[in-house]
Each structure stands twice: as structure tokens, then as C-alpha cells.
Design brief:
The complex is a heterodimer of chains A (499) and B (228). Chain A contains 23 helices and 12 strands. Chain A has 499 residues and is of the alpha/beta class. By secondary structure, chain B is α/β, with parallel strands linked by helices. Classes of the chains: A alpha/beta (499), B alpha/beta (228).
């Protein structure tokens, strides 16, 4: 499963990101800008929490009865003449989509942004079959043209600056304009318009599937998804089984929470509902519509601790608040699902063997859970993943031995006192000015810390010692003659070694 | 390649949920959420709609029933549109819009579903598209446009300027209320496409710089028809 676009170790990926200060600043800006817009809308809405709770309960209801809802959705869609394809795994979906396109005889397709198509690695598979997928979302087109990977789930090309982007279009498509984002965007409008008008097959994702009506929705600002789903004769909608909502009214709640959380707006410029294919008396719209419904490991998460993760609506709010994401950006995670939600989802879909490092790229601060519009306890699920790995025997023999020894030493007063005294003496020698610095970086284990930051020395005088001294001092003062009270104002016990 | 059937596909889902069989009927939860604007007087809804639409960059104008034509022509000249395509709607003839456009020397075309290639070609070339959405949403300044034989989806999508003509009485509080209006008109059998349009197409994909006018409309406008 191609969830990872970069399979280097986590540490390597992070080191690579650290070199790119533009990328880091771009992510800071995205977090600050989108986060502030979102926060303002949330602050202005007295019912925000209630809405989130209600939405979460609707999502849970659907997941608890997912067999019923998948069936209802599929049957409603079939009823409207949509060809519904069922894909237990990503490869099945890829094969089914290739099959549909081959039957049309087309060699290129237009696409709008879809995480699901990325999850199943559709673009590479299509290229291998000689079918060229044209990404039409601006950022996705930039990434495709520049042969780059996404750094954010909502604004994925943020790590590339305008000069780089202009240069890429200059080289590949003869762009002659300036670096101005307006000019580049208008060039993209001109570049892609004939592709839309000439396309015979369109591929879209789906934000929500409405079980009662077999409707698939698209949430976009650029209008490209309207083109992709409305102009070609054949429309292929690719969606996970976890996109389903019960009925039309649920869309108000879900879409409202999605857009506010994702981009800090009340509504995107277009919210499109596609149901079936064009009616016999209609002049445009797809003549045939296919929905590819994909499981790809989702059903495994039902009825277990990670079922709540399937509430996720891919808004990206969790990454816009995450302090780790802020530093390591989407590229640090290496997965198409980055940030806190990706830390939960990637190992659950791809296994701990490939993705076992990710749950450790988290401080468990819980910022993600506090902004999640679907109330997913993301940080708790990340902790749960760590526990899973321990239960599955992830710690090595040496790690286990070290923890066991530490447990013995720290769990006994005598050994604890002995060890901390020794540590204070040794550290004082190693770091005479109270800190172990970079010069200790080549010492195994310790260097893991001191290579990048100082470690404060363990103090010879411990809290218990200081407390005992303070207590003795206080008692001595209390016994003093009351007439001397004015002179007996407590002096704060200053301890030279104290922090 | 043999594709799995729905029955096969559902098996692991039911198994994971410990369901011996799939329920025949499930009572859907109440998915309705009371909008802050619910129950507000129609005048307030219209005012709110106007404010929200302006906030996302949609130009708003008012017209009295019977005098849409002049408002439309001045809107078209404001956006420097020299050609226009519009959806079939009985208001077009009732308001004598063809005559008024002729006088204003603005070439116009009606959507003709029986000649789809030409109709789409016209949309791709026209400066403006005009449709008659079935509802406006006060909360977000959105218009809700259905596609059918009289109104192709290209009209509100391909021309650089999009103008919606909405009755004041069709402006509702929320998306839910708009869907209620849709359901009232179509039942469970929805039009093949419903698009909720809120302002011009935009992107912030390059360095988060907001650019208006990407693939969809560059300018959007609403004419509110005071029909009460």
C-alpha cells in the first residue's frame, strides 16, 4: 500500500526537513493563518461544541451500523443508474478503475483532489498503463508538475515558493509571466481549461456519500471538481466506506464543521452534490457514473479502539495546531496522511512494521483532540498505538533490561539516593558549569540528548534535603521569643545549588 | 477480473461489527441542527444573505418583479460582459429579457439541452451565465442551483461572470432548509447535480496568497427579486 512516499527513517526525514527553512516558515504561516481564521469562527459560534458532539454521534451511529449504511448507499446509487464497484483492497480499486478507463479507450483523465486515490497509488498505476492523469487542483497540479510530495493535507504545495513554481511552469509549459501568484494561477486557468473541455473521463474523490439518496458530494474552492464531475462523459468517484452520512440534512452539520475547520471559512465557493448520471433530457453532465467503494483495511478498525478514527473528515485542523507538525512539516511523516490524524491512520492501515516510528513523533499534548470537529481523541489513540507495540513485543532485549534495572534502582530509597549522589558527582565533573553540553555528544545514549540541547546536571542537594533544612529552620524560628518577631522575618532559604 | 459483489463486500464489515445479519431498517438519528437564523423574519434572512454574499465577493442588486431586465443589463455592463447565456425559465419571457438585451445590444443564447454540444460551446465562449437558483442560503450567502433540462451545469461554471436571479421569498436560513426545499420539489429523486455556489472560485495554494478566479467563475453576482 503506497501510503508512504518517503520510506527513509523518521530521523532522516526530519533532518532533511530541518534544512529547508522556507518549508518550515511556510508551515508556520499556514498554521497561524488558517488556525486563527478557524479560531475566530469557532469563538463566534456559541453552539460549536454541541455541533461537534452531534456530528461525532452521527458518525458513530453510521460506523456502528456500517454494513447497513454501505448497503443503503450502494443500493440508492445503483437505483439511480450509477455503476457501483466494490473494492476490498486498494489494488482491487486500482484494477477496477483501470478497467473502466480502458473500456472508454481514453489515454488521459482529468482528476480533482482525492486523498483516497493517493492512498491507493492511483496515479502511478495509471501511468504504468499508459493513461495520463491530469491533476487539476492548483496545488496538486503544481506537485505533479514539479514532481513533489505533499507537505500539508489542505494546502499541499506550500513548501514550494513562487519563484520555484513559476520556474517549473516555465520549463514544462512555456510560462512567460512573473512570479506573482495571481499571474501563475491565471496561467493555470488557461492551461487547464482546454483539458477540462476535451476530457472524456473525470475522476473525483468524495467528501460525503449520502446513504438515503446515493449522492456524492465535493467541497472545493477552485471549481475544478465541478468541471471534472460535470463535463466528461464518464465520471469515476473514488471513495472510502467511511465517507457515508445518513441523509441530506446531515450534510449541513458535516460540511459546516469541515469547511470551518479546514480553511476557516463558512462555506467553500462550491459544494457539489452529484446523484447518478445526467437525465435523458439534460444537456450536460456525465452519461455514465461509476462509484468505486473502497474498504482497504477500514472494516478491520470497526468495533475496536481505533473505530473512532474513522469519524475523520480530513479537515487538517489537527495538523494546524500540532507543535510537532509545526517543526517537521508534512514531509517529516513521509505518509500521505500527515500530522496527528496520520499518526493514527497510517499504522492502522499500513501496519506497525512500516509505520511504527510515527506514534513517537508526538508529544501527547492533546492539541489535536481539542480542535477535532469530530471529537476524535487523537492523542489517546496515539498513546494506545504505543501500548499496542509494547504489547506486541516491540522493545528490544536491551531496552527491557535497561528499564528493569532503572526500575530496581529508582524504586528503592537506598539505591535511589546512592545513584543520584553518584550522578551529581559525575555530572559535575563532566559539566562544570551546571550543564552537559555538545562536547558530550559522542557518548552513546547521552549523546541522543546533548547533540541538540544541553542537559542540566543532577543537583547534589536534593529536594528532600532542602525541604528538611527549610523545615528545621522554620521550627527553630517558631520557638523564638515573640518579642523578637520583628527581627525574625523568615529569610528564604537560598540554596546555592537550587534551581 | 471478477469484481466482488455487494454481498461479499459487506461480509467483513458485518463480521467486524458482530452482526449476524444486516439490519433491514435502522432509525436514522436526528441529523437536524437548529440554525441560529431559524424562524427569523424573511426581511432579516434577505439582509443576512446580502451581507454574507458581499463578504465573499458576490455583487448584490435588487430588482422588483417586472423590472429584472434593466437590473440585469446594468449588472452585465458593470462586469463588461458582451455576451450572455441563460437558463430557460419562464421569468425570461415574462420579464421580456430577450427584448431588453436586444435593445442593449448584448447578444444572448438560451440553453438548449437538445443541442448539447452547441450549448456547451456557447457557455465556453460567453462572458456571462445567468441561472435561476431554487434557493438562497442566508447563513452563508450561497445560491443553490439544480441542473435539469432547462439549466445545464455549464452555465454557472464556464463563463467568467455568473449571475444568479433569486426570489427573495426563496431565501432560507440554512443549507438544511435549502435541502428541505429541494426534497419538497424532487422527493428522494434528486436532480443529477445540485451545486451550492458561494462567491467566485478562489485558491490560496501558492504561498497562501488569496487569488480570485481559478477554474470556475471569476465574478459572481446575485439579483434578489422582491417578489413579496
Amino acid at each position: 500500500m503506497p501510503l508512504f512516499y518517503n520510506t527513509n527513517p523518521l530521523a532522516q526525514r526530519i533532518q532533511d526537513v530541518e534544512k529547508d527553512t522556507f518549508e518550515q516558515q511556510a508551515i508556520h504561516k499556514a498554521q497561524d493563518t488558517i488556525g486563527a481564521k478557524r479560531n475566530k469562527l469557532v469563538a463566534d459560534d456559541p453552539n460549536w461544541e454541541k455541533k461537534c458532539e452531534k456530528a461525532a454521534s452521527i458518525r458513530d451511529h453510521v460506523l456502528d451500523n456500517l454494513d447497513f449504511y454501505v448497503k443503503q448507499f450502494a443500493e440508492a446509487a445503483i437505483d439511480r443508474g450509477t455503476h457501483v464497484h466494490f473494492a476490498p483492497a486498494g489494488e482491487d480499486a486500482v484494477n477496477e478503475i483501470i478497467d473502466i478507463i480502458k473500456k472508454t479507450g481514453e489515454k488521459s483523465v482529468v482528476k480533482s483532489k482525492s486523498m483516497m486515490t493517493e492512498e491507493i497509488g492511483l496515479n502511478h498505476a495509471l501511468e504504468a498503463q499508459g493513461i495520463h492523469p491530469i491533476e487539476t487542483d492548483c496545488a496538486e497540479n503544481i506537485l505533479q508538475t514539479a514532481e513533489q510530495n505533499p507537505s500539508h493535507i489542505v494546502v499541499p504545495a506550500l513548501h514550494l515558493d513562487r519563484t520555484h513554481i513559476a520556474e517549473v511552469y516555465r520549463k514544462k509549459y512555456g510560462y512567460t509571466g512573473t512570479d506573482d501568484p495571481h499571474e501563475i494561477t491565471h496561467f493555470l486557468r488557461k492551461l487547464l481549461r482546454p483539458k477540462f473541455l476535451g476530457a472524456h473521463v473525470g475522476i473525483t474523490g468524495c467528501n460525503f456519500g449520502v446513504a438515503q439518496t446515493g449522492t456524492c458530494t465535493l467541497v472545493t474552492n477552485e471549481g475544478n471538481a465541478r468541471m471534472v464531475s460535470g463535463l466528461p462523459e464518464t465520471l469515476i468517484i473514488v471513495m472510502g466506506i467511511d465517507r457515508i452520512v445518513p441523509d441530506l440534512p446531515s450534510l449541513d452539520l458535516m460540511n459546516g464543521l469541515l469547511v470551518r475547520s479546514a480553511v476557516g471559512a463558512k462555506m467553500t465557493s462550491s459544494f457539489t452534490l452529484n446523484t447518478g448520471h445526467r437525465a435523458s433530457d439534460e444537456g450536460d453532465g456525465p452519461r455514465q457514473t461509476h462509484i468505486v467503494l473502497i474498504d482497504n483495511g477500514r472494516s478491520r478498525l470497526l468495533n475496536g479502539p481505533y473505530q473512532k478514527m474513522l469519524r475523520c473528515i480530513r479537515c487538517g485542523a489537527c495538523m494546524n495546531i500540532c507543535p510537532v507538525y509545526r517543526q517537521i512539516t508534512g514531509h517529516g511523516y513521509g505518509s500521505i496522511y500527515p500530522g496527528p490524524m496520520g499518526i493514527v491512520l497510517t499504522p492502522q492501515l499500513d501496519g506497525y512494521k512500516k509505520a511504527g516510528e510515527l506514534p513517537y513523533a508526538c508529544s501527547l499534548c492533546g492539541g489535536c483532540a481539542s480542535v477535532c470537529p469530530m471529537k476524535i481523541p487523537i492523542n489517546s489513540l496515539i498513546l494506545h498505538e504505543r501500548q499496542d507495540m509494547v504489547a506486541k513485543g516491540r522493545p528490544t532485549f536491551i531496552e527491557k533490561f535497561c528499564y528493569k534495572t532503572a526500575g530496581h534502582v529508582l524504586g528503592n530509597v537506598k539505591t535511589y539516593n546512592w545513584a543520584t549522589k553518584r550522578a551529581a558527582t559525575v555530572m559535575k565533573k563532566m559539566g562544570p558549569d551546571g550543564r552537559l553540553k555538545e562536547n558530550t555528544a559522542n557518548i552513546p545514549i547521552l549523546g541522543g540528548w546533548t547533540a541538540t540541547r544541553d542537559l542540566r546536571n543532577v543537583q547534589a542537594s536534593k529536594f528532600r534535603d532542602q525541604f528538611a533544612a527549610h523545615d528545621a529552620h522554620r521550627k527553630a524560628q517558631m520557638t523564638m521569643d515573640i518579642s523578637d518577631e520583628a527581627n525574625a522575618k523568615t529569610k528564604v532559604d537560598t540554596n546555592k545549588d537550587g534551581e | 477480473m471478477v469484481e466482488p459483489t455487494l454481498k461479499d463486500f459487506l461480509k467483513p464489515i458485518s463480521a467486524a461489527l458482530d452482526h449476524d445479519q444486516i439490519a433491514r431498517h435502522i432509525k436514522a438519528p436526528d441529523t437536524h441542527f437548529v440554525s441560529e437564523l431559524e424562524g427569523a423574519p424573511q426581511d432579516d434572512l434577505v439582509k443576512h444573505f446580502e451581507n454574507e454574499a458581499s463578504a465573499v465577493g458576490t455583487a448584490v442588486a435588487h430588482a422588483k418583479a417586472g423590472s429584472i431586465g434593466p437590473v440585469l443589463t446594468s449588472m452585465l455592463s458593470h462586469f463588461k460582459c458582451t455576451s450572455v447565456v441563460f437558463a430557460n425559465d419562464k421569468r425570461i419571457d415574462k420579464e421580456r429579457i430577450p427584448t431588453i438585451l436586444q435593445v442593449a445590444k448584448i447578444p444572448y443564447t438560451r440553453w438548449n439541452a437538445k443541442n448539447p454540444e452547441d450549448s456547451r460551446h456557447v457557455c465556453a465562449k460567453a462572458d456571462a451565465g445567468v441561472t435561476f437558483p431554487l434557493a438562497g442560503i442566508a447563513e452563508t450567502g450561497t445560491v443553490v442551483q439544480q441542473s435539469d433540462a432547462d439549466c445545464g451545469r455549464s452555465i454557472s461554471l464556464l463563463p467568467p461572470t455568473y449571475i444568479a436571479i433569486v426570489n427573495a421569498s426563496d431565501i432560507v436560513a440554512s443549507l438544511q432548509d435549502a435541502f428541505d426545499a429541494v426534497s419538497k420539489k424532487y422527493g428522494k429523486d434528486l436532480p443529477s447535480n445540485i451545486t451550492c455556489i458561494t462567491g467566485p472560485s478562489t485558491t490560496s495554494d501558492i504561498e497562501l496568497v488569496r487569488v480570485v478566479g481559478v477554474h470556475g467563475p471569476v465574478h459572481t453576482a446575485v439579483i434578489i427579486v422582491d417578489d413579496r
